[in-house]
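User: We ran a pulldown and think these components assemble together. Before we commit to crystallization trials, I'd like a predicted model of the whole complex to look at. Sequences follow.
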Amino acid sequence: MKAAAFDYVRATDAAHAQALLAEHGAGARLLAGGQSLLATLNLRLSDPAILIDIGRIGLNQIVLANGVLRIGALTTHADIARSPLVATHAPMLAEAAPLIAHAAIRNRGTLGGSLALADPAAEWPACVLALGATVLVSSTARGARRIAAEDFFQGLYQTAMAPDEMILGVEFPRLEPGEAQACMELARRHGDYALVGLAITRRGAGWRCAFFGVGPTPMLARAAMAAAEGLPPREAAAAAVAALPQDLDPPDDPSMDAATRLHLAQVLLRRAIERLGA
Amino acid sequence: MLHAVDLPNAWIGRARPRDAAARQAAGGGRFVDDLRFARMVHVAYLRSPHAHARIGAIDITAAAAMPGVVRVVRAEDLDPIMSPWTGVLAHFKGLKSAPQYPLGRGVAVFQGEPILAVVADSRAAAEDALALVQVEWDALPAVTDPEAALAGAPIHEALGDNLAFTRTAETGTDLAAAFAGAHKVVESHFSTARHTGVTLEPRGILADWNRADQRLTVHHGTQAPHMMKEIFARHLNLPEEAVRVICPDVGGSFGIKVHVYPDDMATVAIAVLLGRPVKFVADRLESFTADIHAREHRVHARMAVDAEGKILALDVDDLTAIGPYSVYPRTSAVEGNQVVNISGGWYRVPAYRAHLRVAFTNKPPTCQYRAVGHPVAVAVTEGMADLAAEAVGLDPAEFRRRNLIADDAYPTKAPSGILFEGLSHHKALARLLEIMDYDALRAQQAEARAKGRHLGIGIACFVEIANPSAAFYGVGGAPISAQDGCTVRLEPGGAVTVASSITEQGQGTEAILQQIAAEALGVDPARVRVITGDTERTPYGGGTWASRGAGIGGEACLQAARGLAANIRDLAGAVLQAAPDTLALRDGAVVDAASGAVRMTLPELGRLGYFRGDLLPPGVQPELSVTRHFQTRKFPFAFTNGCQGSLIELDPETGFITLLKHWVVEDCGTVINPLLVDEQVRGGVVQGIGGALYEECLYDADGNLLNGNMADYLVPMAGEMPDIVVAHIATPTAESALGAKGAGEAGTAGAPAAIMNALNDALRPLGARLTDMPFTPKRVLDAIRRR
Amino acid sequence: MRLALTVNGQATSLDVEPRMHLIDALREKLDLTGSHVGCEHGVCGACTIRLDGVAVRGCLVLAVQAEGCDVQTVEGMAEDARFDALRAAFVAHNALQCGYCTPGMLAAAAELVEAGGTPDRAAIRAHISGNYCRCTGYQAVVDAIADVMEGAA
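Assistant: Here's a predicted model for the assembly, 1218 residues in total across the polymer chains.
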């Protein structure tokens, strides 16, 4: 199937992109890596009037400054996967990146594009949520603002961004001494969307667990996190698993019924806590 | 075997890379979609979004006014051009179906059925216009379940009910008595899921009607160009000589590209309507609903055994759903019929019954897809074998040893009565256990289990249909040739041209013909040029399907090449004044057979034959091209056999199955090129793994496809596939000098059963069992939960 | 839109609609039909090509996004000595049958080969796990890549 017709404009920098967004209004879509957007265009599942290509505006740096790891919105999955800074200061992201689709997609797809799409089955939104990261967004009308991950994902493919805003980057807290992070998932095949995925971090005896593929947004498992708090690994796992049904209410879909998905989430959670607890 | 492979002329049996592989790897592939002709237009089809709906008013005004649109074609526009067809064959007694048209009219009966066409100067423009066509749909209740279909209102009123076909085969001793007197009786339900072929190149056709000379040329990604020529001519009411079908490169077929599809037929009819070249290439989404599906079967089986574990009886009941039409011209009864013919076919089964019901439903039509019916029959038979082995306390391998038909018992018959020429089940099983190191694997399994790991080992024996005779289709009235022809020609410079009616879809047809001709003519295969896939440039024949290319087309090539070799020796003998039988062909020359001394090179002979008739002895007429045809006559099929082993690891918490290793022993008779056969067998295994673990067309109760895209319909990818060890036993068929049977179906036939048995081996300590494919994590977990 | 880019080493310009993806542009506008379209939703990998030296899905890149870029298709790879060994290994192992996936498979494999090292079979399988082949059992493809990488190491 071929995409329906649309117009195209290439932004020269972030300010230009925001100006174009403001100018073209609701019919405009930002084109970052395009690895999800182009598929939906080719399937005629979306029909924007104009695409604003932000592929050449920079925003693809990974820097450590003031104790936070800042990753530009247009940094590709592949760049994140091979960044020594990421491996050292946000190992969850280094573990998550190779799980995203396939090499050729990781070469184009971007962190910001993934967050803006807010696919609930994707890895980055859950990682951002689990790490308590901050999303930096900006618009011509209102300038820059910071959105906490917990406030960013509002619903199925819905974020807290206004239509005229774009993501500039994400700030991740750096790995603390003694902190352990992981991103684990159960997928039928390499690169498939996970049946269930989990981005998890342990800071001291406290846990933060964000699931993906189990609801309309990445889901913070607050009851499970609270139940596990302060317990030794085995007990923490058992308590978290027992509490998890309070956090998750996965939907039925053709590939998996809700009860099985919840069961898989519990298995994954137990395995992750046992792994990070050691 | 013809002879050892170390002789200088011995190309048959050699692992030789294919010329076509080098061409494709350099970007030289040329598929239907790569072709462009002057004035060429593109067609896209409006397909029913409903599984069952009355087609009301259609408004094409806006679509017809779109830029780039050449014509909007309604169903009735094609009535003067093309006649409908019905997918029945005389030898399937009682098989019924409804007339099918290139574009559906009145009532759409499956989601994806084409009902209207837009022709435009690009595919994108055609799709733009399609989006503007307004159709008043009146949705009707859809029947998606075969049991409900048989009990409910007929999809086609004129047919009376939804029972397309039924057959019962009952052979041997009294079935009831055998079950009543058995030491143990085991029974089980099995199901295989509706899935589809997913050729990476979608179906494509480019039809060109030349009004000036009233001739139709069709470039078509098909396995059977002569059949398609016959069908185009018949339904366009053209004389056969007015139609030419050409196959460019074909990007995978597996049976998908051997059927008559409404959209292909409509494309050809539209080419005639417009008098210009029309291209249709299915996109991936429409492939999922418009390609044939297969394998939707529910089976209940019972097996009776005595105290020694000898099979006394097998009773198989198969219900299959084929969609709303039996597909033309092969029919959709064949798959179920194969289950009846093949089940139990490698065992001595004194009492056998198989009952088949074929139901119409409102899902896309099903038809022959790789290893037709075999994966079902093998899964049922081998699933029952494992159950029976367990019931009498035998190891699965020992159970098979006790029941497999003896290697020296041939010719003999299958339980269903179908004839076997010569098979090697015991040799193959012994070889399989050897390459698996079966006893060591069992020890490894026990060790792993002690550590909490759940390994499973499964084996499956099977037969595979190859080299079908006219008894398969021709006898029923289909224009499907069971014979193939080959012309082999010596060129003046010593090269050889082979023109064959079998076709190439990547399996290496052209490579094996090169090797066969090279061996018979004593030339380097690199000097052999092969032509296939053109009804005007090749002899008449059936094409490539049902593992018949090597066995039938290969034999025709061998006989033609041998005939040419004899003519070359005759000519050389006349020129050299030597008795032809003292001469041989080696290394591009006519040599003295005894000493090997070169008497005349082939270029020298070619020059004499073609250009210097003045130098030839009086009366000598060089015949430097020879055509031969071949079909099997003594046996309806040249069955092959084999067995497979699977080692898996089950994660009982997640229901995930990891494939650790897979083994295949295959007896396809003479192996012409092991490099090609081995990877074709592996490819077949992987397709079988698809059916066992991943592939299922998921429908809701209204007949809507839920996973019709590559992201949601899972096919096997490299990351999850195991390494696959392939070994061979060779029992050549005596029906041909070549002795080749076929290897296309073997992997797909046996892999699902081997994996199912390995899974159940791993599940057994958990008290669980699963026989519904595909074995998804959910189904595995459900099986464990309901133990 | 008018578009200038380098294709297989040659500076090229062409007119495309913004909606046209790069593979259609290469095929329709430049007659480079070696790149094949398999699904057009980024899953099958048949259309994988090299864009500025890395493997990308050609159906998930708009032609207009490739302005100024360096595109290499299978036709260009065939004339690039860096990939001779890879191509030869595919042929020697019969790592293709119908050949429809092969241009994409080669582009994917080339990236791994260029990265160097001697990845194990599982790593090779993982790397090509986004490239669908319905004909082979993938084993010959893995064998071919492993051969090249062991030879290059």
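The longest strand of chain A covers residues 166-173. That may be worth checking against your pulldown data before setting up trials.

User: Thanks, that helps.
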